[in-house]
Amino acid sequence: MSILGRIFDKILHRNTQAAQPSAPQAGATQTPSAPQPQAQAQTSPAMGAGAATMQRVDIEKVLDDMAQKNPQKLNWRTSIVDLMKLVGMESSLAERKELADELGYTGDKGDSAAMNIWLHKQVMKKLEENGGKVPASLMD
């Protein structure tokens, strides 16, 4: 699996089971309640047909929840290194260079600061394109 694929798996599919409604227990009665808002659905060309019914994952909430449970203080909002650490991945320069290759980075990989900034923006953009809801502040 690609590095980007592993990032997607750790973030986008983190709450898959928790998000699925549980079946009512035997003998339980359901009472009518106020109408619930429809899940926000959005498609992009990368998501393909049938994605219109997919609920978008709130990336900021998922990562904030992960950060609260992590003993390290990680700046995942701006650092690709900390984002990778937060989701339990190796964040070495070699891994980041491989991620840069996957995402089509054409800059100087010797300038790790510039590459890291580009990588973080691209990962957030790809999360947005593939079912994530990413605030504009994380895409800048």
Please give the structural blueprint.
Blueprint: H1 3-12, H2 16-19, E1 57-58, H3 59-69, H4 80-86, H5 93-103, H6 112-129, E2 132-133
Parallel strand pairs: 1-2
Features:
44% helix, mainly alpha, two-stranded parallel ribbon, 140 residues
Strand count, sense and barrel status of the largest sheet are:
2 strands, parallel
Mean of all residue-level pLDDT scores: 80
Query: How many strand elements?
Result: 2
Based on secondary structure, the structural category is mainly alpha
How many angstroms separate the termini? 28 Å
Residue share in helix: 40-55%
Helix and strand pattern: HHEHHHHE
Count of helical segments?
6
Rg, Cα atoms, Å = 18 Å
Shape: globular
Q: Strands of the biggest beta sheet: in what spatial order?
A: 1-2
Low-confidence stretches: 16-52
Sheet-strand content, in percent, reads under 5%
Describe this structure in words.
The structure is a single chain. The chain has 140 residues and is an all-alpha fold. It has a domain at 56-140. The protein contains six helices and two strands, in the order H-H-E-H-H-H-H-E. It has helices at 3-12, 16-19, 59-69, 80-86, 93-103, 112-129, and strands at 57-58, 132-133. Strands 1-2 form a two-stranded parallel ribbon. Helix 5 (93-103) crosses helix 6 (112-129). It is globular. The model is unreliable at 16-52 (pLDDT under 50).
